[in-house]
Write a structure and sequence with these properties.
By secondary structure, this protein is an alpha+beta fold. Helix content is 52%, strand content 9%. α12 crosses α18. Bound molecules: adenosine-5'-triphosphate and magnesium ion (MG). It comes from Candidatus Falkowbacteria bacterium CG23_combo_of_CG06-09_8_20_14_all_49_15.
Length: 487
């Protein structure tokens, strides 16, 4: 099993100090599945003060019995690779969840069993002990977690309804884990989720947001959202999306708005959760602006309304301002017009200015998602490839005098001359030289050369320069076209 040396040494230190200590929760689950754990949790009989005595670099910041120890501090040698923290938590049980949010009371315990009982799912209630002497690690499995791991099942520890009533976030954790691991929900657990969907109302939006982000980062976000809808959890998270269920579109679409949103998410080629979220929400304005029925239905301005709705949804769920702005921007601009032959380079530049250079890739990916989600099979039609080509072309701004570190005004000042054709000629010659060697693009070199060119036969120099530039332009354009497969 792939346990980092820091963790092994930490467990050994605790045991030689006389305390029981086990790896527990998600990291044990992931180790047994052969996945790389996201974080390392340790549960122990030692009380926080005792943990701190063994690991003076640890920090004890809350009253839940968790001490954070930086991984780096655990190995003295040159081993720099691993960073992050290990969470060491004293055995504890929880009781009295009055507000469905946080346990009212955390009680330290003397037995591992009590600590495992409070955990949400059988696959998350496994503990792993490492005895230096023993050949293989010892696994403590009180609730059949290993069997559920083998059968790929998410099953609540104990009575599902009670456990979900204690903490409603577990409803969402179940869906999130099934999306991450491709596990099924055990039927009784699933029924309890659907029955108690309303408990999500009491959960802090930040906690919901964090689970949503993990769902969108998982390999199966659209399946998870479909399940959120069928189990009615979606009503308490994004009710606006529930409004899209069953809303038919027009003759350009074969799917309802909701199905199309789900499929766009499914086929989104970009792994960034923000782009995926935009794919899910891009048509969220449609149900409210729909005019007429049947094949003639219209959805004017759904992009504008959709952007406003998206902003409201993400504010409600406490997404950061930056994340929200990025998703809203994509939803707002997903309808950008593009037709080969009709769109000029200038209008492509305007699109870049509006959307932001750094968001273009995402916007194109959203467009691809949108197309694939509409049932049209071609991933990247000629139109999109052509747009990508134009974007590349206007962005790289192939060889123009504008990229020179000196301009006509500078030359007039430097050479004490009025405007005239000699300025253009000098700039052309300078450009041809910079093309040959970009390192020459500095004011010292360019000023020096400008004086020389001015004193020489600049007419014929200009002709030579133009040839160099023309050849370079052709090569560049051919290269960019080849990259985008356009003629
Ligand atoms: P991840 O891979 O995202 O870290 P995880 O299962 O490890 O998933 P954590 O939030 O790191 O999730 O929690 C660690 C462990 O703490 C869980 O495996 C589970 O045993 C327990 N746990 C976390 N949240 C809850 C909860 N809301 N109710 C009960 N147990 C929980
Ligand atoms: Mg974890």
């Amino acid at each position: 099993m792939n346990i980092p040396p820091q963790i092994k040494s930490l467990l050994a230190q605790m045991r030689s100090a006389g305390y029981e200590a086990y790896l527990v929760g998600g990291c044990v689950r992931d180790l047994l599945l052969g996945r790389e754990p996201k974080d390392w949790d340790i549960t122990t009989i030692a009380k926080p003060e005792e943990i701190l005595r063994i690991f003076p670099s640890g920090k004890y910041e809350n009253s839940f019995g968790t001490v954070l120890v930086p991984m780096k501090s655990l190995l003295s040698d040159q081993d720099e690779q691993e960073s992050g923290v290990v969470e060491i938590t004293t055995y504890r049980s929880e009781s009295r969840y009055q507000d469905h949010r946080h346990p009212e009371e955390v009680k330290f315990e003397d037995e591992l069993d009590k600590d495992l009982e409070r955990r949400d799912f059988t696959i998350n209630a496994l503990a792993l002990g490492l005895d230096i002497e023993a050949a293989s690690p010892e696994i403590i499995d009180l609730f059949g977690g290993q069997k559920d791991l083998r059968q790929r099942i998410i099953r609540a520890v104990g009575e599902p309804e009670e456990r979900f009533k204690e903490d409603g976030l577990r409803l969402l954790r179940a869906i999130r884990l099934s999306a991450e691991l491709d596990f099924a929900l055990e039927p009784k657990t699933e029924r309890a989720i659907s029955k108690l969907a309303g408990s999500l109302k009491f959960i802090a939006p930040e906690r919901i947001r964090d689970e949503l982000i993990k769902i969108f980062q998982s390999p199966r976000p659209s399946e998870a959202v479909a399940r959120l809808a069928s189990l009615k959890l979606l009503n308490y998270i994004i009710p606006e999306l529930v409004q899209a269920i069953g809303v038919n579109q027009n003759r350009h679409h074969i799917h309802t708005v909701f199905k199309h949103c789900l499929l766009s998410l499914k086929y989104c080629p970009n792994p960034d959760w923000r782009v995926r979220l935009a794919a899910l929400l891009h048509d969220i304005g449609k149900p409210r602006v729909k005019k007429m029925q049947g094949t003639e239905a219209t959805f004017y301005n759904h992009d504008i309304l959709g952007a406003k709705m998206t902003e409201k949804i993400l504010r409600r769920l406490k997404f950061s301002q930056a994340d929200s702005a990025q998703v809203v921007n994509l939803v707002r601009n997903h309808m950008f017009y593009y037709n080969v032959g009709e769109v000029t380079e200038a209008s492509v530049r305007r699109l870049i200015a509006k959307v932001g250079k750094e968001n273009l890739r995402d916007l194109i990916d959203l467009r691809i998602a949108d197309r694939l989600g509409s049932g049209v099979p071609k991933a990247k039609p000629y139109k999109l490839r052509h747009l990508e080509y134009l974007l590349d072309k206007v962005q790289s701004d192939p060889v123009s005098v504008k990229m020179l570190k000196i301009n006509g005004h500078d030359l007039m000042e430097l050479l004490k001359i009025p405007p005239g054709p000699v300025l253009g000629a000098i700039l052309d010659v300078l450009l041809s030289e910079v093309i040959e060697d970009p390192a020459r693009n500095n004011r010292d070199y360019l000023s020096l050369r400008a004086v020389e060119i001015f004193a020489s036969d600049w007419q014929s120099g200009r002709q030579q320069a133009k040839n160099v530039i023309a050849v370079r332009r052709q090569n560049d354009e051919a290269a960019i076209k080849a990259v985008h497969w356009v003629k």
